[in-house]
Amino acid sequence: MPESASPSPSVSSGEKPKTLSLPPVTTTTTFPSHNERSRIRLTAAFFALLTLGWGDGVTGTLLPYFKRDFNLSFMTSSLLFVASAVGYALGTLCVEFVTSFLGRTCFSAAKTPAVLPLPSLCRRKLQHPPASDASVLGFSIHRCRFLTLAIMSVCHSAFFMIMGSKSGFPSMLVAYAISAFSRSFILGENVYVCTISKRGLGYMYGSWAIGAFCAPLVCQSIIATGIRWANFYFGSLVLSAINTSLLVFAFCPTRTELLRDADFAWALLRSASPTPDAATVATKETAQASPTQSIAPILQKKISVGPRTYSAAVRKPKLWASAIFSMIYTGSESSTQGFIVIYLLSLRSANPNTVGYVTSGFWGGMAISRFLWGYLGSIVTFRQRKWIIQGCISVAFCMHLLIWFVPSFIENAVSAAVVGLVYGPIYPANISIARDLLPAEVHLVSLAIVAAFGSFGAALFPFITGTLSTAVGPRTLPIITVSQCVAMFGLWTLFPSQPPEQL
Prior knowledge:
Blueprint: H1 38-56, H2 59-70, H3 74-77, H4 79-103, E1 104-108, H5 123-127, E2 135-139, H6 141-165, H7 169-186, H8 189-196, H9 200-224, H10 230-251, H11 255-272, H12 284-287, H13 291-303, H14 307-314, H15 317-347, H16 357-376, H17 382-405, H18 409-423, H19 426-437, H20 443-472, H21 476-494
Antiparallel strand pairs: 1-2
């Protein structure tokens, strides 16, 4: 049967039917390629993570100043971590709606897609296109990614503005929630980076650690000169502006990408039509049943994650093992970097003008190991990865014991840096082992659950640490982190030492 459709048999007498064939499709019904402009986009993605790490890594250094200026207890100051978790949870809940809206667009058979990446705002207009211009309401993954990154990078800059205004502790909670909300969207670059580069995920989180390493150094240095800490956040707006500009330049979709998205949308429509007649606009009467109406449920079915995928994912015990491990790890990481400065000030009589550098040492060690893991991640075998992480957890356990029992500021600072060094590969390795052990069809849902549990742990355990510190003092920090290392060691032991196909 030819591709051009024949007139509909329901044409009223005396009226010559008009037919519109679907445009030729040059792609199959798979997602478009992501390889165009990959170098500049990887650079922009790494710099975006550096900016996120810059905002997050300074919390431990500034927490004593927050407590002093706003008369906070350990428990109330730990609410900053809770606010971050709430913001991340809201972002996770909203991500599907926001991305589907930003990526929705109307592809016309008669017009080349516009480079200007604006989402289609009027559903009614799109559902009834003119009879002379067959249109399909589709999803443009390139527009979606561009608009999401651009909008959320601007949203993240609001975090620096609110913190710099120093307008009170409630506003700081809002700022931390906004930062985490935007971070939940920007971290969606994980999928893109993994598609482009096998080593990209390690380099990506290494960039995060570099930002978290540099921020305490700069912040502690300007505070030592007498400049108020709020000015650090105002100065960070320059970094945020560079980040937004780089993302806009790198991820603005090209005309080729938009044409590929249009081909993909029309291909979905053609694959759903049993005959060419079903996808043809024949007359004014049949034109009202536009391709827009038939393509929407197809796109939703093929692109979004359905309830069956969720139910299949949550029935996997290995998913929950990885998620709980992620929760304990992020809790230990956040507790260590968040309260180590207060611990050293209270129990090791540290110098307030230099103690903030300990946080930089923690993040510096993590930056080194994550970049190293980014290089080795695609080289080490499944078995080697299992035992390397087991060794990292063991070393971290010993370092937390030294922080607990050795009453020396210098030794504790070195131990904190070593903890950061051995913590670096743990989270990327946990993501990798979850990806290897779980079926491909549940990867998207599974990795989202693992990330959500990680965000929950980053709020829960610092809050527990702050609450216990309020009751019995800051000496509880190493007790909690040692217990977390024991739990991580036990959980990691349960993971297999051989890939699934060899079990």
